[in-house]
């Protein structure tokens, strides 16, 4: 018996020794993507314009692997890959029996780890549960360690993955955004809740590092870079960078801002969005006697060119591209006028009027809230393709109806316009709330909005004015409903809005005094893009008069008219020169 015990101990000792890296110098290259939003193909579906995509990303990834060896490259994605483009939509909801195209592409590209993002959760259980199974079956961990099951307190998604690179043990911990419950209806993420990344990540790092003894530790979070002041639950990247111990790299995401940070002990990368960049980290490790005695990190960015694409990968997925193209080029109706999302920044526009009309005619709501969801989207007049619906309504948001008092509606609009405009004294002032700083989220150079334009809600179903010479709290004057009856500040109205907004997105409801609207929701309708599709099927041709009927949507305007118009036109030239 003693002989067998000694033999077993010897085997354990040998296993322990083999788990230690060999002495020497190692260099690992960390390549990261995030917020791809369905940028799978390098060609659009209508005009075949070239764009950045996973095909371009793979060109650079393969170049790095060829230069330094595949065993020295770590490739990971930090979330939001399942929403935002035709191909993602097609494999999310149309072809649900084939293996999802992202699972196959991620495997083709050799991703080591994929982290879930809030827009991935937005697709619903059927989609992200399926993706998780497919990725795991292909040996790609699908992480989201702050999604906690309600029934037993365990993780809904794994929080960690161990990968081996050239003899080094690399620990990757992955987490989703902590603010998901404030944006998405609970039915989408039923059975779980999402914890703050502070102090959860440090707790996980301490426990897992103690057990696994990795040589490299990477934390990948679908959370924005933030300000590092601990006050933004949605954006905890810099909070982690400033506070984590025992971590080499923080990979963050979500806010579409390309950022790198580094100090002597830790680096941060956020590659931006839509495959515009690849995050690039270099980790240099010196091992002696099986232990890491020295480690250096560098953080950088690889700009991606749309002209560089992996032709072999394109050929491998060409059949998928053609299926998606055929689906999205189907005709759905006609437009007698063009739709320009940027027109919505200047006042009433056919684009937002269209959304308002759909929302009001699809529900019993008397008032509608809607915002421009594309910064500079355009749909030409004439035949409308299914592809155009992604410009008219780019997100998979449901239409909700929420009860609000007249005062709350007034306060809500005051808060919305306060992010949109600023008080002016003359037509030479900036009335739009803009600054001379570019915005990488929409590739805007020069001037950009201070706040996110998809939160610039206007109202329909009611007549009102917005006085640009008045301060916050005094700008909005609501007079009558679209029907002509007086608007009553004390009455309760049913208001149509997106599920994102109804669940707290943009914080407009909270600022209007409604921190929790769950008990006010009276209707949960279909996804708004589907309702737009139904509207085309019902009417065939959509006209300016159809979506601009004042008896349905009412009227609003900036006043004093001449001063506001002149100032806004000047600001629009700066934004869209």
Provide key terms for this protein.
577 residues; alpha/beta; 6-stranded mixed beta sheet; 19 helices; globular; disordered N terminus
Describe the structure.
Residues 1-17 have low confidence and may be disordered. The termini are far apart. A 6-stranded mixed β-sheet has the order 4-3-2-1-13-14. Strands 6-7-9-10-12-11 form a 6-stranded mixed β-sheet, covered by helices on one side. The chain has a 5-stranded mixed β-sheet with strand order 23-17-26-20-27, with helices on both faces. It is globular and about 85 Å long. With 577 residues, it is α/β, with parallel strands linked by helices. A hairpin with an 8-residue loop joins strand 24 and strand 25 (476-481). The chain has 19 helices and 29 strands.
Topology overview:
Elements: H1 2-19, E1 24-33, H2 54-68, E2 73-77, H3 86-94, H4 101-109, E3 113-115, H5 118-122, H6 125-137, E4 142-143, E5 147-149, E6 160-165, E7 168-175, E8 192-194, H7 197-212, E9 216-221, H8 237-243, E10 249-251, E11 258-262, E12 267-271, E13 277-288, E14 291-303, H9 311-316, H10 318-328, E15 331-335, E16 339-340, H11 350-362, E17 367-370, E18 378-379, E19 382-385, H12 386-392, E20 398-405, H13 406-420, E21 434-435, E22 448-449, E23 458-460, E24 462-467, E25 476-481, E26 492-498, H14 499-502, H15 508-511, E27 521-527, H16 528-539, E28 541-542, H17 544-547, H18 550-553, E29 556-559, H19 561-575
Parallel strand pairs: 1-2, 2-3, 3-4, 7-9, 9-10, 10-12, 15-28, 17-26, 24-29
Antiparallel strand pairs: 1-13, 5-8, 6-7, 11-12, 13-14, 15-19, 16-18, 17-23, 20-26, 20-27, 21-22, 24-25
């Amino acid at each position: 018996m003693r002989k067998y015990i000694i033999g077993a101990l010897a085997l354990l000792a040998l296993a322990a020794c083999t788990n230690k890296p060999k002495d020497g110098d190692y260099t690992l290259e960390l390549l990261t993507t995030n917020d791809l939003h369905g940028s799978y193909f390098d060609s659009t579906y209508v005009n075949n314009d070239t764009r950045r995509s996973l095909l371009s990303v793979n060109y650079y990834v393969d170049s790095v692997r060829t230069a330094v060896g595949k065993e020295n490259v770590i490739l990971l994605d930090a979330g939001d890959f399942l929403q935002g483009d035709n191909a993602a939509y097609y494999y999310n909801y149309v072809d649900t029996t084939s293996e999802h195209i992202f699972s196959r592409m991620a495997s083709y590209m050799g991703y080591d780890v994929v982290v879930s993002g809030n827009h991935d959760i937005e697709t619903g259980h059927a989609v992200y549960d399926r993706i998780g199974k497919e990725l795991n079956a292909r040996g790609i961990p699908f992480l989201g360690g702050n999604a906690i099951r309600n029934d037993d307190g365990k993780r809904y998604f794994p929080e960690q993955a161990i990968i081996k690179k050239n003899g080094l043990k690399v620990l990757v911990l992955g987490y989703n955004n902590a603010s998901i419950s404030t944006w998405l209806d609970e039915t989408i993420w039923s059975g779980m809740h999402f914890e703050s990344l502070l102090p959860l990540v440090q707790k996980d790092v301490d426990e897992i590092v103690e057990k696994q003894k990795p040589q490299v530790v990477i934390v990948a979070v679908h959370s924005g870079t933030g300000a590092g002041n601990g006050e933004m639950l949605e954006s905890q990247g810099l909070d982690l960078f400033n506070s984590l111990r025992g971590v080499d790299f923080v990979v963050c995401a979500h806010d579409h801002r390309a950022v790198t940070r580094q100090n002597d002990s830790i680096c941060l990368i956020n590659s931006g969005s839509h495959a515009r960049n690849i995050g690039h980290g270099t980790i240099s490790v010196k091992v002696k006697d099986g232990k890491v005695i020295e480690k250096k990190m560098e953080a950088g960015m690889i700009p991606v060119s749309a002209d560089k694409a992996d032709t072999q990968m394109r050929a491998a997925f060409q059949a998928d591209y053609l299926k998606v193209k055929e689906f999205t080029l189907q005709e759905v109706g006609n437009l007698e006028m063009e739709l320009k999302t940027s027109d919505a920044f200047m006042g009433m526009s056919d684009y937002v009027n269209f959304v308002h009309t759909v929302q009001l005619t699809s529900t019993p709501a008397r008032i509608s809230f809607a915002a421009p969801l594309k910064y500079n989207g355009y749909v030409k007049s004439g035949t409308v393709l299914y592809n155009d619906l992604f410009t008219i309504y780019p997100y998979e948001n449901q239409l909700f109806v929420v009860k609000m008092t007249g005062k709350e509606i007034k306060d809500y609009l005051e808060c919305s316009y306060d992010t949109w405009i600023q008080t002016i004294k003359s037509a030479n002032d900036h009335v739009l709330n803009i600054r001379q700083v570019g915005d990488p989220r929409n590739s805007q150079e020069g001037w950009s909005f201070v706040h996110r334009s998809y939160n610039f809600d206007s109202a329909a179903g009611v007549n009102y004015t917005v006085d640009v010479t008045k301060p916050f709290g005094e700008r909005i004057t609501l007079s009558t409903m679209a029907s002509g009856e007086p608007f009553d500040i004390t009455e309760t109205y049913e208001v149509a809005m997106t599920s994102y907004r109804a669940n707290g997105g943009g914080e407009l409801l909270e600022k209007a005094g409604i921190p929790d609207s769950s008990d006010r929701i009276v209707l949960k309708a279909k996804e708004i893009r589907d309702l737009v599709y139904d509207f085309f099927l019902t009417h065939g041709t959509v006209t300016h008069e159809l979506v601009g009927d004042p008896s349905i949507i009412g009227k609003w305007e900036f006043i004093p008219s001449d001063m506001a118009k002149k100032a806004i036109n000047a600001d629009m030239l700066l934004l869209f020169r």
